[in-house]
Design goal:
heterotetramer, A alpha+beta, B alpha+beta, C alpha/beta, B: alpha+beta, 7-stranded mixed β-sheet, C: alpha/beta, Rossmann fold, two-stranded antiparallel sheet, 11 strands, binds adenosine-5'-diphosphate, binds magnesium ion
């Protein structure tokens, strides 16, 4: 199984990375660009795990390690891809 | 601004103000404050901004000397360093934010102190940091250390200011309350030192830097919950640092200072826009009027209260000459920064803030500072002090194997190499670094001059716990000694007084004792205090941290090519021990590491001898008589010798003999003060000995440099490679616990 | 000779490069502001270290779009000498003027220390004052200095002598322990195929004075100075004498 | 419109962060964790843009700036969320 995890800066928390990229895109002529927010995208392969229980474990990983909940939110989805690499 | 909740004494109490303070506010205004005004008072009268518990005591510190250009009271202190230049410096704490979010807390701590220094017109050339963490095996420690160190590096490296030194200690007393103290040193030309006093009625007040968000709003969390329907939305958020913007702000401000448009400038630190406005108006004896709608905002729907009290980073407030707004704007445009005129200087002595066309704040400026609360809080010696100070050496068994003890000490988190920490810092950028991290003090050259500056930061909080007066005396002496062994003469110091809750009489007692210690040491060594910071309320669950009066000190070297580092340089040199060794182990690293005890009284210190030793080393260094110098501190002579070997560029060992005049552990590991290890050319030694005798400095040749081993009498004979393996990687090994 | 040192918002070692060139090597050296495409007639361009535009997305990613870099591209295409150090190396890779990319250090931490480099090719404009196999002690300071390129690119680089320096130990061996960032094949610096664009993670501009950490970096600047003088003496003719070695 | 962009390290490119996170997860007792790969998740808000053309622009942003194709792959999706914040 594959867990796809999205970690994003919390609302209201300054995102200097996003700010800088928005400015750069404007400078490159992408005038239509509004807000940009940059987070992490993490793929975790899980051996032999499945279903509800696996989801619970992924949540735990996020809470314990992958997201810094003081400044970041996270969400995730799990896909059963038969063990193939994405 | 309709439908606002009535502001009462209860609201004030929720803002951390007392009933008497509330009465005072009402009498100053002649009416109850608005909600925004209450926010302003609570911020300005907080311990952090008003120093209400410490002010009375800080007055006793010596702050003047002929070379002091700016003492305490401005954003940073400044001392003359010759050639029309000044060294501008300050240390500041960022303890609580770093415990909550170590990376960002430490990063924004560095950002804040950098702004304090460049606000004065100084180009920052060096950063230092003083760190205290809990026990190394406390489950939270590794993450805190990694986060804090990465944050300090992440910010300083990106801004392009070299981090050249610091200290790191681990002690269970900081398990729940780490300390992150950041220091910046800058250089300014005398005539370009800027101050934060508004002047010129009608001059524009200009906001520059990042937009304002809801970052770290003081006291707002509970207060706003009452009237906000969407309280989640308005919760104050952790401050995230943006070092790139800081770099632009630094360059733009320094460029602006070269022009003649600038009247006054102040960074927006604690209590943000509010304190910078009130302080600039207050120092100039004038008023300031601002329009909150014109403040650049990051988020929608911010309230007046939030804009006034936001602590968003990388912002500055300045007063410019009327009519020069376009020049200011042009400079900030060049650096892609915002500059918004948000108000003007007035002659009415009021701080006024308009929002949505109404006046939300109308406060007389002088009373906010002049009538700020001032407390002489009760002080009382801690009940367990006598018991803690008891130590009977007779009951301690002497170590059977001193070599084992040395290895254990060198591998202990407090004495091992801090390379893992300082390699994460750019210690070279801008090319001033003559001696970087890894010696007693860092040494920086002054470009275009033969001179150099030496900087160090020191405090042994174990000594301060056992006797805060003596501990503080030693902190000042050790800092000054670290400068002396680098060849420098101290010019001034900046202190960061980290203590527990001042409302507790034992904490207040520690504080008063420490101040007295700093004062006496400064008077004796003739070192003025030119800036500083007090951090109270470092307690968690009713437990206070050990008193930690951190001392950052700056010194001058007339010929920087004569500066000294601690590592041995040449085989065959004579090793000399200066000072007197006593049989004392109280509060030592040896006692803590080998016997697991923190007790006894700190080492004896004789300020007269201290002064003579330092003067002697400095003079000998200036005359080029010495090859290396190192002060003897934690771990005693044995550890100091090992450090001289390990810091030696060629990893030279040493053969040493010590007169067995006392217990072996006290002889090898005792921390008697005012001692220094020198290495000198054999030819030079007789001359040096005579001079020492003349100067009343005990000096003894104890051995010789050069051997692949460190040998000390019959006690120790260990290959340097073995010591290096223990010492070098110890911190990394200890921290490589689960990420 | 006249040197231009690019200044981006966030450049930090620009001052060090200017100092090394003007105060130490007595060259004429001027800053070139990123918004201005005019190279002001310089004979060589230095892309300095730092954190251009904060390096918030990827190191060097944004700098390559600046007006000055469009001119540098043309300058390089015409055979002009361009040296990128640290962030400058990252920028030149991002701009496609040098092959490969620089990724996060193996340790995941920033690292600042003096390292040993071994000169891999002494027939280049940057290394002509060195001997092949010679060791230089020069500091590094970066968080993203791990050189990466795909296998075939690496093979080409090696075959054409485009690998300039490798990280080595005190004995001159390219061991894994001596590799401070995990760079593939211990590569610390490379040049382009025509031998006029150079990139290296170490900072030679921080190794030009004994009092602040050694002088080994001087040889590299001296090499370029000699190259430029020789070119000038030839009347700006063929700019291609010391190019990549075809082995 | 909102563009959700995923930038991931190319196969074969070193991902020391992913490796370190996998190790840390193991140490925390998540024995089922196999490979971990860490990339970026970027949200770009586009004002007034829509459909094919917008997608083309986003691709251009990725190619020009957001991904370095020597070491990274990217993919993206665009969602019309009526201009709301995600
Ligand atoms: N947090 C830190 N940041 C930078 N350098 C540090 C830090 N901690 C320790 N160092 C450096 O490591 C060396 C040893 O530190 P320390 O043992 O505290 O020295 P000393 O006892 O002489 O004051 C010093 O050169 C110091 O500057
Ligand atoms: Mg010391």
């Amino acid at each position: 199984m594959l867990a796809k995890i999205y970690v994003t800066p919390k609302r209201g928390v300054l995102d200097p990375q996003g700010k800088a990229v928005a400015q750069a895109l404007h400078a490159l002529g992408f005038a239509e660009v509004g807000d940009v927010r940059i987070g992490k995208y993490i793929e975790v392969r899980l051996e032999g795990a499945a279903g509800e229980e696996a989801a619970g474990r992924v949540r735990e990983m996020c809470e314990k390690l992958l997201a810094n909940q003081v400044i970041e939110d996270f969400r995730f989805e799990t896909v059963d891809d038969g063990g193939k690499r994405s | 601004m309709s439908e606002r909740p009535p502001v009462t004494v209860r609201t004030a109490e929720e803002h951390g103000l007392t009933a008497e303070e509330w009465e005072k506010i009402v009498s100053i205004l002649g009416r109850p404050p608005t909600f925004e005004e209450l926010g302003v008072f609570s911020a300005m009268w907080s311990e952090h901004c008003s120093y209400k518990s410490s002010r009375a005591h800080l007055k006793s510190l010596p702050t003047s000397a002929l070379h002091v250009i700016q003492g305490p009271g401005e954003n940073a202190g400044a001392v003359d360093i010759g050639d029309g230049l000044a060294a501008v410096f300050k240390i500041e704490s960022h303890n609580h934010p770093s415990f909550i979010e170590p990376y960002q807390g430490a990063a924004t701590g560095v950002g804040g102190i950098l702004r304090d220094v460049f606000t004065m017109g100084a180009r920052p050339i060096a950063n230092l940091n003083s760190l205290r963490f809990g026990a190394i095996d406390h489950p939270r420690t590794p993450q805190l250390v990694k986060g804090v160190v990465a944050g300090i590096g992440g910010y300083g490296n990106c801004v392009g200011v070299a981090t050249v030194g610091g200290e790191v200690y681990f002690d269970a007393g900081y398990d729940q309350n780490i300390l992150v103290n950041a220091f910046t040193l800058g250089i300014a030309r005398h005539e370009r030192i800027f101050r934060a006093a508004a002047s010129g009625v009608g001059n524009p007040v200009i906001y520059v830097g990042s937009r304002t968000g809801r970052d770290g709003i003081h006291g707002a969390s509970m207060a706003s919950a009452e009237f906000a329907e969407d309280s989640e939305e308005k919760r104050p958020t952790v401050q995230v640092g943006d070092p790139f913007t800081e770099k632009l702000l630094l360059e733009a401000c320094l460029e602006l200072m070269e022009s003649d448009c600038l009247v006054a400038i102040q960074d927006m630190g604690a209590a943000g826009l509010t304190s910078s406005s009130v302080e600039m108006a207050g120092r100039g004896g004038l008023g300031i009027e601002i329009d909150l709608d014109r403040v650049p905002q990051r988020e929608e729907g911010m309230s007046a209260y939030e804009i006034l009290l936001s602590e968003s980073q990388e912002r500055m407030l300045l007063v410019a000459q009327a009519g020069r707004e376009p020049d200011v704007k042009r400079i900030f445009d060049k650096w892609d920064l915002q500059a918004a005129v948000i108000g003007r200087v007035t002659d009415d002595g009021l701080f006024r803030a308009r929002w949505h066309g109404e006046e939300a704040v109308r406060i007389p400026v002088q009373p906010v500072s002049m009538q700020a609360p001032l407390y002489r809080r009760p002080a009382e010696e801690p009940k367990n002090l006598n018991e803690m100070q008891e130590l009977s050496l007779a009951s301690l068994p002497e170590p059977r194997d001193c070599e084992e003890a040395l290895k254990k000490l060198l591998g202990s988190p407090n004495l091992c190499s801090k390379r893992w920490v300082y390699e994460q810092y750019d210690s070279l950028v801008r090319g001033h670094t003559v001696i970087g991290p890894g010696s007693d003090a860092a040494v920086l050259r002054i470009k275009g001059s033969a001179r150099g500056l030496a900087v160090t930061v020191d405090c042994n909080s174990r000594y301060c716990l056992l006797d805060p007066y003596v501990g503080a005396v030693i902190a000042v002496c050790e800092a000054s000694r670290n400068l002396a062994v680098s060849g420098a003469r101290p010019l001034g110091l900046s202190d960061c007084l980290n203590f527990g809750n001042p409302e507790k009489p034992p904490v207040m007692w520690q504080f008063q004792q420490a101040i007295a210690g700093i004062r006496d040491a400064c008077l004796s060594l003739a070192i003025p205090v030119v800036s500083g910071n007090v951090s109270f309320y470092n307690d968690t669950d009713g437990r206070s941290i050990p008193p930690t009066p951190t001392i950052a000190m700056v010194g001058l070297i007339d010929d920087v090519s004569r500066c000294l580092a601690q590592g041995f340089r040449r085989a065959g040199d004579v090793i000399v021990l200066l000072g007197r060794s006593r049989e004392e182990l109280g509060g030592s690293e040896f006692l803590a590491t080998i016997h697991g005890q923190v007790r006894g009284t700190p080492p004896w210190i004789d300020l007269g001898l201290e002064k003579r030793v330092q003067g002697f080393v400095r003079a000998a260094a200036a005359d080029g008589w010495l090859r290396s110098a190192h002060d003897v501190s934690e771990g005693g002579v044995a550890v100091a010798l090992a450090e001289c070997c390990l810091a030696s560029p060629d990893r030279l060992g040493a053969r040493v003999d010590l007169e067995p005049s006392m217990r072996s552990d006290a002889l090898l590991f005792g921390e008697s003060q005012s001692r220094v290890l020198l290495s000198v050319d054999r030819q030079q030694w007789p001359r040096l000995r005579d001079r020492a005798q003349r100067d009343g400095v005990p000096a003894e040749a104890i051995g010789e440099v050069g051997s692949p081993h460190l040998e000390i009498g019959d006690w120790i004979d260990v290959p340097l490679d073995e010591l290096a393996a223990i010492w070098d990687g110890a911190l990394e090994r200890a921290l490589r616990v689960v990420a | 000779m006249k040197w231009g040192v690019l200044v981006f918002p966030g450049s930090n070692d620009d001052q060090d490069a200017l100092w090394a060139l003007s105060s130490v090597h007595r060259q004429e050296a001027i800053p070139l502001w990123h918004k201005d495409p005019d190279l002001r007639g310089v004979d060589a361009v230095v892309v300095p270290g730092g954190f251009s535009y904060g390096d918030y997305l990827r190191c060097g990613a944004m700098a390559r779009f600046s007006p000055v870099m469009q001119s540098v591209r043309a300058f390089a295409a015409a055979g002009g000498i361009v040296l990128g150090m640290c962030n400058g190396f990252q920028i030149l890779c991002e701009a496609g003027l040098l092959p490969g990319a620089l990724v996060r250090n193996r340790s995941l931490t920033f690292v600042c220390k003096r390292v040993w480099l071994r000169v891999e090719n002494d027939r280049t404009a940057l290394t002509r004052c060195c001997r092949e196999g010679e060791r230089l002690q020069i500091p590094i300071k970066h968080g993203e200095g791990c050189y990466f390129a795909d296998e075939s690119t690496l093979r080409d680089l090696e075959a054409r002598g485009q690998v300039l320096f490798r990280y080595v130990d005190a004995a001159g061996e390219a061991t894994p322990e001596a590799n401070p960032n995990g760079a593939l094949r211990s590569i610390a610096g490379v040049m382009n195929a025509s031998g006029n664009v150079f990139g290296m993670m170490p900072h030679p501009e921080h190794a030009v004075e004994a009092i602040v950490g050694g002088e080994d970096g001087r040889k590299l600047f001296q090499s370029l100075i000699e190259e430029l003088e020789e070119r000038a003496a030839r009347g700006g003719g063929s700019r291609r004498r010391t190019t990549g070695r075809a082995t």
